[in-house]
């Protein structure tokens, strides 16, 4: 749900990609 909120907030694919990478590194 966090990613969906951020994607709806920014609506930027590049930002979503960076966030996904951050989430992967955090996991």
Radius of gyration: 9 Å
Assess the beta-strand content as a share of residues.
under 5%
Distance between the termini: 16 Å
* Count of the separate structural domains: 1
Order of helices and strands: HH
Number of strands: 0
Helix content percent band: over 70%
Question: Your description of this structure?
Answer:
Helix 1 runs antiparallel to helix 2. The protein is 85% helix and 0% strand. The two termini are 16 Å apart. The model has no long low-confidence stretch (mean pLDDT 76). The longest helix is centred in the C-terminal third of the chain and has 14 residues. It has 27 residues and is mostly helical.
Short recap of the structure:
The protein is built from two helices and no strands. The chain is mostly helical and 27 residues long.
